[in-house]
Design a protein that fits this description.
Layout lengths: L2 H25 L6 H11 L4 H34 L14 H6 L7 H11 L1
Length: 121
């Protein structure tokens, strides 16, 4: 992938990363750590045990999704740095720019992604 296009995706990925980290910090009440945020959430949870458990499960799921998203963004930025961004990790084919615009963290072409999804069912 040529440098101007890679630079565009790098900016987009860095913006996504910054926005994601800002959401995490805001939800956690500032720059507090994950353990502190969990303790704070427990303190603020309702007295209803089932509702508190549901809220905790939702928070854990959200944290896991955000962590996975950060890992994917960082991996995409690393592929830009090493020159492999836009190439399918499975077959080495070029990933279409339209797919990368829709999902800048994409690391598989459509065919390989569909095959992986079929096998995971």
């Amino acid at each position: 992938m040529n440098t101007p296009i890679s630079d565009t995706f790098a900016r987009q990925l860095k913006d996504q990363r910054g926005a994601l980290l800002a959401r995490v910090r805001a939800r956690r009440g500032g720059a507090i750590g994950r353990a502190d945020a969990a303790a704070q959430a427990r303190e603020q949870a309702s007295d209803d045990g089932a509702k508190a458990s549901e809220e905790r499960d939702l928070l854990i799921g959200l944290e896991e999704r955000e962590s996975a998203e950060l890992v994917a963004i960082d991996a995409a930025l690393q592929r830009i740095a090493d020159g492999s961004y836009g190439l399918c990790l499975q077959c080495g084919a070029s990933i279409p720019a339209a797919r990368l615009h829709a999902r800048p963290t994409a690391d598989h072409c459509v065919g390989c992604q569909e095959a992986a999804e079929r096998h995971s069912r």
